[in-house]
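Run folding on both entries below.
>entry_1
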Amino acid sequence: MEKQEVEQLDAPIILAVKGQTRNTVAYKLAKHLKYPLIDQDEITPFLQNSKHLNNISFEISLSIASIQLKELKLGVIISTPLSQKTQLDNLKKQAKSAGALLVIIQCLPKDGSNDFNIEGVPRLIVDPRKQTFVAEEFVSDELDKVRKRSYRHLHPLIFKNKLIAESEVKCSRCQETIPGPYYQCFLGCDEYRFHKACGELPGDLEQVGENCPKYLRVTEPEYLFPENLRSNCKICKYKGTEFSDGCHDCLFQTNMKGGFLPIIVNHESHAHPLNLLMMPLSYNYEFRCSGCGDFGHSISYRCYDCNFNLHVSCILLPRTVSYNYDKHPLRLTYDSLEQSYLEKSYCEACKEERNPEHWFYYCPACESSTHLNCVTNQSTRS
């Protein structure tokens, strides 16, 4: 599974570099990342003498950055003294209006400007006095970690059958310490780690069906979550916004809080774990179900390695049913490629042709095959 298949860096980034060595660090980062560089010190000499030079040059820097962020969707690097709390507040507003991630890079030694507490913004420390600053290493070792934690992206979970070295790592669902084994986001998000039991489908399939509201398992789902269970994600909290059904992280968090659907399903029909994928309706996400063969929208259980998708309703199909037109229980069957099945590639109920590669209900005693819909419309669970 490649990272670019699941990572969705859907927002630009602002790197505000401050401190005595800020120009050197900012120039190296701009060259490596190929981001526009706005140097506040280069603007100041062109302004007329004024006691407000610092503020004016900072506001001009922000104005230039706004064009890069909003119009061109580019990341920007601003080399700035960032000497006042109001300037940080304005940077935050700029980032919020552009939907950008703001990161402060503090270069040591500090430049003697007024220091203030930086809250609610990721801050990285650079000290070129200790070792030569290498932009490539800084981006891969430090900046990428912040981006993974802060950017919206899908969260394919991978299973790790080992102990966790850190003793205080907690499960995102139950908040208890994880000794191992566990599930973790493929991209390394610290906030998406789960005990094996907390991530997987519980044993009682019928209970899962009862917990899952109808609006999540229909062909055209809607996100009608009760208001008291709606939860905003870390990024939306940082941006000061509430739950949004246009944010897949908010949908993920809300489902986790409400316990509507399991995050991981180990299904008999597929060799790999299936991840719950909940996409905003505005994304128009569409897939073809590998079970019934019909199209689905917005919500699926997906294997990222195999491009295998299932409807929620297909995941919840009963494994055995009683059927009005057969005295024997019918068994949900996935592997329809055996010769005996191919010989009867029609539905016993409606007498229409049946695609032998799609799931069906099978009676071993009668050797009869029936469409899923033909059975579920008239059957009861046994």
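>entry_2
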Amino acid sequence: MGMTYAYDPAGRDENTSVAVLHRALDLGADLIDTADVYDPCTNEELVGRAFADQFPNGRRFGEEFLRLLREGPPWPTLDTVTRRLDGL
């Protein structure tokens, strides 16, 4: 999701990005990829602002998630993924 990173930074418009997110859900999208490779935290913040009124409980989770991203998770991400894959 390159709405807050790359792809012509000067041409970004948050209102347009929010409209695109809402339209995507209207059309049936069921995944919004905000992986930290797309600029840590900024996509999550955009999604949080876009849907704050629709998913208030998710916002509480999102705030904790963003805190972990900013401060660093209590575990190394690669180790976590490796452990999960080993359990398959």
